[in-house]
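Can't paste images in this forum, so I'm doing it all in text. The chain is below; anyone willing to post the predicted structure tokens underneath?
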Amino acid sequence: MQTFIKNISYSVYDEYIKSIKEKDYFTLVLSGGNTPQFIFEELVKNYLEKINWKKVHIFWLDERCVLPTDKDSNFKLAKEYLLDFIDSGSIHRMQGEIEADESALLYEKEIKNFFKSKGIKTPIFDLILLGMGTDGHCASLFPDSIELKEHNRLVISTNKEYNGNKRITLTLPIINRSNKVLMIGSKEKLNVFNAIKKDLPIHLVNKKNMKVIIRNDEN
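Text version of the structure:
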């Protein structure tokens, strides 16, 4: 587990270095779940001084429609284990506490405005941390969902609830335009990733710029 986390954290650092050399800032998209917690802790432990966090601009892959103080909030997880320890260039939080469709529209506008301020018309993130579920879902894009058919919007709300909450999520178009996607998971999830069935959400993510890091429980 420790080697797994170290490999992910180093990959984040490596992409940070590339972006800083190229354009002097770095856009990082965070996901939720248990594994990111350990990644955040590793980044604080070993990269707090190595990374100039003022040049790091933080976004989210998805969020549940809950208060930012709720235990299920992806923002709350990041705040407790990463954000409270760094002085970031900017933090772009998905507003899970307001109406879902409105929140999605506002977040899409925020993304566009950020990149416009950098002189970039089409938003392209430097690195997305992408987990996946054992059902093959990624972000809040679930198997057979209407959200998988969205080709124009950058951010949308889910049509229905999943595990008790509606969600706000980045869409496949902006995920697939990113410079690098770091797909993280377990051996069990790797089996799903390698499944013969190829229409699961994870299979719709562009593999060209994807790096897969799988946990070996022996490490």
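Helices lie at 2-23, 34-47, 74-81, 100-117, 172-176, 187-193. The CA atoms of residues 161 and 167 lie 7 Å apart.
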